[in-house]
Amino acid sequence: MELLVAADGKEFYEVAASGLAGTSFKQMELRLPGGVKVIGLPANPQTARGFSGDLFLDEFAMHADDREIWAAMFPTLLRGDGELDVASTPKGIKNTFARLRDNSEFGHSTVTLPDAVARGLDVDVDQLRRSMGDEQLFRQEFLCEFIDESTAFLTHAQISACEDLGLDRNTPVSELAAEKEDLFVGVDIGRRHDLTVVWVLARRGESLVTRSVIELRGETFRAQSERIAEVLSLRNVRKCCVDAGGLGMQLAETAQEDFGRHKVECVTFTASLKTELASRLRIAVEDRAIRIPADEAIRNDWHSLERRVSPSGRIVLDASRREGHHADRFWAAALAVYAAADDPGVAESMTIGPLKYDRRGIW
User: Quick one: CA torsion of 217, 316, 161, 331, rounded to 10 degrees?
Assistant: First the structure.
């Protein structure tokens, strides 16, 4: 088998397998015996046009531009006798893959975890269900159910529209120091059951771009304080909002004492404030004014927040507690957006020459 990588869309160069580390591909082509070619394309409607042959769309429900990709790829079937196959794990009901499920022109088949077990897969279904710790996600990922998103505060489609494949959630602090734009930070505090999440946004024009998502699990308060201080020590951090409720009170107050009230705001969650924080983030999502990494953990965490009506008629925002998090990434991002909304303004500086002493000893 010969592995070739497209350099300009027309001309191909052979790449040794050992030299693939750190290489960025726009297209990959496999040439098989008998003249058969397999072309791998990214989930991008701009690069998907102009091809013919059999078409396979993998994990189609996860694509941010699924409708545009469908429009770009479907006409390729008119150029020959190509076969069209679409496969995916369900991701809600408001996407092209969910609509294709009800399209009578397509044949359908579903393979669930119990089906796989019946065919010989050696796993304990009940143990997997307990280990996942989230019944809705288990039904979606393993039972292939199209879960209604009517109670979700943010739908999968809304979240996917803000995802950017070029963003890295693990940007080190040393690289953040070189960021030219102003940084805004949100910190949601956890200890044993929940994560502590430090979400860092950079303002780029009218958009807020995620530069780093730092997650701390089970670390001591001292260690958490040191990691938070490492970020706040950056000169380009303009404002930070820290969860100061319950366990977070001490860490928030310490950060404020060390870096000043102008830089650190202690935020105590109340029902009304949570609604405001969540609404600000939702507006940013709806306006596509925030960019986030394409990350499964972030996507599921943001989608876990539900909006329901209490017996008294109040709107309540909450997430079922899963093992390891409680919508912590959502609230850290919401705090970062809140910090950016309260931007203290552009930092200004003035350079002066060295101080000079009067000969008589007076300044």
Answer: -30
- Do 170 and 96 lie in one domain? The reply is no
pTM attached to this predicted model = 0.60
Range of the domain at 297: 156-341
With respect to residue 363, please indicate whether it lies within any of the assigned structural domains.
no
Is 240 inside any structural domain?
yes
Instruction: Reply yes or no on whether the pLDDT at 328 is more than 50.
Output: yes
In a domain, 37, yes or no: yes
pLDDT in tens, 56-87: 888 888 887 888 888 887 777 666 667 888 89
Rg (CA), the chain: 25
- Our count of domains for the chain comes to 2
Average pLDDT over residues 151-178: 89
The token pair that represents 26 in the structure block: 């726009």
Mean pLDDT of 79-98: 80
pLDDT exceeds 60 at position 23: no
Structure tokens at 328: 């912590």
For 61, the 3-state DSSP assignment is: helix
Outline where the chain has alpha helix (H).
66-73, 96-101, 113-118, 125-132, 135-143, 156-161, 173-176, 221-232, 248-259, 271-286, 296-304, 328-341
First-to-last C-alpha distance (Å) of the chain: 80
Same domain, 134 and 224: no
In a domain, 359, yes or no: no
